[in-house]
Amino acid sequence: MSKKIFVATYPFGQYDKRPIEILENTGWEIDYNFLGRRLRKLEKNNIIGNVDGIIAGTEPYTEELIMSISNLKVISRVGVGLDNIDFEACRKKNIIVTYTPEAPSDSVADLTIAQIINLLRKINISNASIRDGKWDRIIGKTVREVKIGVLGMGRIGKRVVKRLFPFDACICVCDTKPDIEYGEKFNVKWMDKKELFKNCDIVTIHIPMNKDNYHCVDFEELSYMKEGSCIVNTSRGPIVNEKAIISMLYNKHLSGVALDVFEEEPYRGPLTLFKEVILTAHIAAFTISGRRDMEMGAAVDCVRVLSGKKPLRPVAEEDK
Fold first, then answer.
1. Both 270 and 171 in a single domain?
2. What are the pLDDT digits (tens) for 28-68?
3. How far apart are CA 56 and CA 172, in angstroms?
4. 198 and 131 co-located in one domain
5. HSE-up of residue 308 (Cα within 13 Å, Cβ side)
6. Statement to judge: residues 76 and 128 lie in one domain
7. CB 137 within 8 A of CB 115
C-alpha cells in the first residue's frame, strides 16, 4: 500500500523546490496545506486525514488529534520548537518525532542582533517620526555602552553571544547548564536569573517553551530591571507574560520591546498601540537559507522513517 504524507506547514518549497522533490520522488501520495496559512485546531481533524507522516509546522498536535490518525508513524517538525506536540501521546502510539534544531539558529541569532541594535538606536521610532512629517534626531546608545543579558545559552544563545563579541559588548549570561569553556572564549559574565534582570540594560530570551518556562519572564523579572531597559523575545510567546510587558510600558519602566513571538498568533493585541514596541510576525527563522535547511531536514527524516531507517535528527529526551 502506498504511503501518504501530509505537509501541514505553509509555505513549503516556496524558495527551494528540493524538499518537494524529496517527497514526491518517493512515489507516495503527498498532500499539501492548501489554505495558505497555519492550520487551526478544528480544521486539522478534517484536513489531515489518515496519513503515515506529517511535515509539521507550529500548529498544535494534541493527544486527540494524534490518537485519531491510525496510520501515523512520524511527525517531522520544520523548525526547533516542540511545545506544540503531545509527546506522551506519541510515545503511546510509537510515533517518532524529528526536528531541525540547527537549521534556523543563524537566522534567529541574526534577527536578535538586528533588534538589539534597533532598540538601542531607536531606529523604529525615528522611521515613524519621519513618516509623520517630523525630523526628531533621537539619541541612542552603542552596544558597548550597555550590559546585554542573554537568557539561555543553547544553540541560538551561543550564536547571539558570538555575534555580540566583536561589538566589545558587556555580555551577561544565565543558563541552567553553563558551558564554561564557551563562556570563557567570549568573556561572558555568568549570573542567575535575578542578577541578569537586575544588572542588564537589555535582555534577549533564548530558552525553550515547556511547562517550567511558561511566563518565565513575568512581573517579578521585569520589575528587577532598571528603568529604561529593553526586552527582546525571539523564542516562544508564552515564555513572556504580555500583560507584564504592557504594564511596564505604560509606567515607562521599559523603553523598548522587540517581539517576534506571541502568546496567540497571529497577534492582534494592545502591544500594537505602543511606538516603543517592534512587532514581527514570527519571522526569526524565516530566511531563504533557514527555511530551505529546515524543510530539507524535515523531508529527509520523514522519508527515512517511513522507509524503515533511523532519522538523522530524532528529538532527544532532554529537548522535549
1. yes
2. 999 998 888 888 765 666 677 789 999 999 898 999 999 99
3. 35
4. yes
5. 0
6. no
7. no
The residue range of the domain holding 250 is 105-279
Q: Determine the Cα angle at 179 with ends 176 and 184, to 5°.
A: 130
| Together in a domain, 20 and 141 | no
The alpha carbons of the chain give a radius of gyration, in whole angstroms, of: 21
DSSP category for residue 239: G
Q: Which residues are catalytic?
A: 236, 265, 282
126 and 11 fall within a common domain: no
Same domain, 79 and 223: no
CATH number of the domain within which 265 lies: 3.40.50.720
Residues with Cβ within 8 Å of residue 171, at least 6 apart in sequence: 148, 150, 161, 164, 165, 186, 187, 188, 189
Tell whether 212 and 271 lie within a shared domain.
Answer: yes
Summarised one tens digit per residue, pLDDT across range 196-221 is 999 999 999 999 998 899 999 999 99
Grid cell of 16 as nine digits = 527551494
| 105-121 helix and 123-131 helix, angle to the nearest 10 degrees | 60
* Dist CA 143 CA 62 (whole Å): 43
Question: Whole-prediction pTM value?
Answer: 0.90
Q: What total of structural domains would you count in the chain?
A: 2
Query: Do 266 and 182 reside in the same domain of the chain?
Result: yes
C-alpha to C-alpha distances, 128 to 125, 138, 194, 229, 277, nearest whole angstrom: 5, 12, 34, 21, 12
